[in-house]
Structures are given as structure tokens and as C-alpha cells.
Design brief:
- The complex is a heterodimer of chains A (110) and B (117).
- Chain A is mostly beta strands.
- Chain A contains no helices and ten strands.
- Chain A is globular.
- In chain B, strand 4 and strand 5 form a beta hairpin.
- Chain B is built from one helix and eleven strands; from the N terminus they run βββββββββαββ.
- In chain B, strands 2, 4, 5, 6, 9, 10 and 11 form a seven-stranded mixed β-sheet that branches. Chain B has a four-stranded antiparallel β-sheet with strand order 1-3-8-7, with no helix packed on it.
- In chain B, 3% of the residues lie in helices and 51% in strands.
- Classes of the chains: A mainly beta (110), B mainly beta (117).
Chain lengths: 110, 117
């Protein structure tokens, strides 16, 4: 079973920031939090990952709560190409592979 | 560098037949994982291979099998196809097992869309 909870869908206007939340209340101390996104007709692609500290890369920022029970993916300026399903993922109980939930479908309005 | 290549891109099979899907990982990546994606169940882990050995297997029937070759290329096979096997089958590669979820990330292919009629 998925270990994360995300809103089913969100909407954003183009060039505005987007904050995608994720709850993972059962996270263990060594679990990295990963975010992937899946554009239409493509496989998922890596966005960002983190353990405890906030992380930034060219695609996004990841803000992790102090108790690590939630995190937020931040797209600083949404573009139409950012319309996708965003998955917040933790490893399974054995730390061997990803357990995907339904993700958040992000729509970006022009 | 070339990405993960999955072939074929689309496939139509009849119930009861078997099918083989192929995945070529990114050069240098030695771990290959397979996922099934359906509208109802989402993305579900099938199995992972490393050094020609299956390391992990998801909760799928024995009709689903796979293998990995010495060049890290992987194939998955589904025998006695059922209508419910219609799905997008995704392959993901990473340098070695464990790094996929710890840090370096998995690289997914575009998938093989299998339709069973």
C-alpha cells in the first residue's frame, strides 16, 4: 500500500508558483522522499528527492517538515509543460522499490 | 546519452497468447525494474533484476516473469494473457539496486502499451 497521501488534482495559472503537498506520516528515519512526475504518454521522470533538509534543483524545490511527516514540492513558475501527474514516493517497507500512490494531477492554465 | 529504450512501443495480443517485452537500460546502469500501470491500480512494481538475478518481486502471478542478460538488457514475459493484463508496462534503470530510491534516481522508459483482446 502507498505510504503517501496527495490531493487528487490541483490547478495553477501559468507563471505562478505551485505548492504540491504530500503527507507521509509513517515515514521511517532512513526513508528518502522522492518526487517523480509523469507527462502524458511518457514514463515517470525524476524531479527531486530529499531526506531532512530542504532541497533545490533546476526543476523544483522540496520543503520537508521538521517532523518529516509531510513535504511540499514547489514549482517556482509553472509552465504549460509542467502539466503532469506528480508522485510523492517512499520506498516499500524493505527499502527495495517504490510504492506509487495515485499522485496529484496538475493542470496549468494559460 | 541514450535513455531507457523499450520495445515494442505498442502491442496487441489475443487472450491466451504470450508476450515478451524488451528493455535496454541506460549505458552503465545495471539494475532494471519493471512496473505495470493501469487506470485502476496505478503503477505497481513487478520485479527488479541486477546482475542477471531477480532481486525483488511484486505481488503478481507466476504468469509474469523476466530475465536479465549479461549486457543488462532485460525482458519480461507474460504467458496465457488475460484481458486484465492490458496495461502500460514501464521499465526503469538505475546504476545499482538501492541507489534508485536513495539518491541517484530511476530513469524510466516510455513504456510498452499492451492491449489484450
Amino acid at each position: 500500500d502507498a505510504k503517501t497521501t496527495q490531493p487528487n488534482s490541483m490547478e495553477s495559472n501559468e507563471e505562478e508558483p505551485v505548492h504540491l503537498p504530500c503527507n507521509h506520516s509513517t515515514i521511517s528515519g532512513t526513508d528518502y522522499i522522492h518526487w517523480y512526475r509523469q507527462l502524458p504518454s511518457q514514463g515517470p521522470e525524476y524531479v527531486i528527492h530529499g531526506l531532512t533538509s530542504n532541497v533545490n534543483n533546476r526543476m523544483a524545490s522540496l520543503a520537508i517538515a521538521e517532523d518529516r511527516k509531510s513535504s511540499t514540492l514547489i514549482l517556482h513558475r509553472a509552465t504549460l509543460r509542467d502539466a503532469a501527474v506528480y508522485y510523492c514516493i517512499l520506498p516499500d517497507n524493505y527499502g527495495q522499490n517504490f510504492v506509487f500512490g495515485p499522485g496529484t494531477r496538475l493542470s496549468v492554465l494559460p | 546519452k541514450a535513455g531507457v529504450t523499450q520495445t515494442p512501443r505498442y502491442l496487441i495480443k489475443t487472450r491466451g497468447q504470450q508476450v515478451t517485452l524488451s528493455c535496454s537500460p541506460i549505458s552503465g546502469h545495471r539494475s532494471v525494474s519493471w512496473y505495470q500501470q493501469t487506470p485502476g491500480q496505478g503503477l505497481q512494481f513487478l520485479f527488479e533484476y541486477f546482475s542477471e538475478t531477480q532481486r525483488n518481486k511484486g505481488n503478481f502471478p507466476g504468469r509474469f516473469s523476466g530475465r536479465q542478460f549479461s549486457n543488462s538488457r532485460s525482458e519480461m514475459n507474460v504467458s496465457t494473457l488475460e484481458l486484465g493484463d492490458s496495461a502500460l508496462y514501464l521499465c526503469a534503470s538505475s546504476l545499482v539496486p538501492g541507489t534508485g530510491w536513495q539518491g541517484d534516481g530511476y530513469t524510466f522508459g516510455s513504456g510498452t502499451r499492451l492491449t489484450v483482446v
